[in-house]
Specification:
With 330 residues, the protein is α/β, with parallel strands linked by helices. The protein has one domain: TIM Barrel, CATH 3.20.20. 35% of the residues lie in helices and 14% in strands. The chain is built from eleven helices and ten strands. An eight-stranded parallel sheet has the order 2-1-10-7-6-5-4-3. A two-stranded antiparallel ribbon has the order 8-9. A hairpin with a 5-residue loop joins strand 8 (226-230) and strand 9 (236-237). The longest helix is centred in the middle third of the chain and has 18 residues, at 107-124.
Length: 330
């Protein structure tokens, strides 16, 4: 995977229970399939993360944090400074839907926040990006391209983190579509979610040549909620994770079907094909993101790390299939 660093999300560096930090680094190092640890040094443990990264020779190349505009402007720079010490190359801004003042964040507020973070990242050699994600302003997928255009109009690249799981979550799921107000547009065909269909939203993002980081986590269209852990508000976790490989008997409370992983795989293939055919493609980082939070795999009994390793092995194999074959010697 020349030019691409493959990482594992730090919340997936466990089997079923969280491990001590050194064991997390040891797990990723000894697997032999990952290039980096995907996490920023955590608050209160910044020095421990940097020291462990140096000790095991595993950089914290990518990472993210959730920010609220109107409250966390200074926090961005603090996080970037520690991330730089740990070898970070990309920082993902997860920007909450609501401003600290209570209103839904406006486009101009997002643009200003991004530009400020972009300048701070430039000083430290860190790429700033924004992700499509539930609970963030980007959960309304219709907002992403207009904001990307506004940022580009300022002479700055819009760097995008494509986590397709948050799109696949909405497929065939009116309840999830209602969360972000997209149901009518989906039903009328103005917003296409299925990556196998023409004119779908994921293709629109890919072909803007803005995906710098691909996050890979399967989600089944209208898949089962996570009934292994209670989420916010006393409800079951949202259905934002589906096992990549079949769990063993007793590890999961739902039926597993291989075909339900295909939408995730199709997105990956499309990203790889676009990257291989586009010399200016900005894609530099890929991560596996089977994690432990309520809306994902919290409380489940299958090994999160083994799932991440299985994804990583498939990614490497699939990547190789997109590399043009050299002609045999005559």
């Amino acid at each position: 995977m020349d030019g691409i660093s493959l990482g594992c999300n730090g919340r997936g560096l466990m089997h079923t229970k969280e491990l001590p930090l050194n064991d997390q680094f040891r797990l990723i190092r000894d697997s032999g399939v990952f290039d980096h640890f995907d996490r920023i040094p955590q608050p209160g443990q910044e020095r421990e993360y940097v020291e462990a990264s140096n000790r095991f020779g595993i950089p914290l190349t990518t990472g993210l944090w959730t920010y609220q505009i109107g409250r966390d402007e200074k926090l961005v720079e603090h996080n970037l400074q520690w991330a730089a010490k740990a070898g970070a190359k990309c920082h993902n801004l997860m920007i909450s839907t609501r401003h600290a003042a209570g209103h839904v964040v406006r486009d101009d507020e997002v643009v200003a926040f991004y530009l400020r973070a972009y300048e701070a990242g430039e000083r430290l050699g860190i790429t700033i990006s924004i992700e499509v994600h539930i609970y963030m302003f980007t959960e309304d997928f219709r907002r992403i391209t207009p904001i990307a255009n506004l940022i580009r109009s300022r002479g700055v690249p819009f760097n995008f983190v494509l986590d397709h799981s948050h799109v696949l979550l909405k497929m065939e799921n009116p309840e999830e579509q209602d969360v972000s107000g997209i149901r009518e547009d989906v039903e009328l065909g103005r917003l296409v979610l299925d990556p196998f269909d023409d004119d779908n939203i994921i293709d629109e993002w890919i072909h803007q040549n803005m995906v710098v980081w691909l996050q890979v986590r399967p989600v089944a269209p209208n898949g089962p909620k996570n009934n292994a852990q209670i989420g916010p508000g006393g409800r079951w976790g949202r259905a934002c994770q589906y096992p990549f490989k079949k769990p063993l008997k007793g590890e999961w409370d739902h039926f597993w079907h291989a075909y339900k992983v295909e939408p995730c795989k199709e997105v990956v293939r499309k990203v790889f094909q676009y990257h291989q055919s586009t010399p200016t493609s900005p894609l530099r980082w890929i991560t596996t993101d089977m994690i432990d939070m309520p809306d994902y795999g919290g409380g489940t009994r299958y090994s999160l790390f083994e799932q991440n390793v299985a994804i990583a092995e498939w990614l490497r194999s699939t990547w190789s299939s997109f590399i043009p074959k050299k002609p045999a010697d005559a």
